[in-house]
Amino acid sequence: MKKTATVALLGVALLLVAAVPSHAFPHHGFVRTRVFVGVGPVWWGAPYPYWYYPPPPVYVVPAPTPVVVEPPVYTQQPQVMAPAPPAPGPQNFWYYCPSAQGYYPSVPNCNEPWVKVAPRPQ
Fold it and tell me: Please, what is the average pLDDT of the chain?
């Protein structure tokens, strides 16, 4: 019976020491104690190592459709030149011979000077 009372008193003493905050022992820094009362296999750690984190979720996203940008196509229009004004070439005149009463080339020779006549529309 004394043995059971000694074990119980020792257990209560350990619980009291565990309940005392760490700043109560200024010379030791801090105190960490663990008390385990139970039946079965004893594991003193976390269910997995503290450095282990589950892998992040994997999201499968379809690749974006590639966008093909074609460069603009420039077509040079043919240069249209403005029609040049007609050259003031030789004036079209009819030449009249008064003595032969005819026009050149019907009258090849004239004894008088030829008379310039503007052509008439036909």
Answer: 76
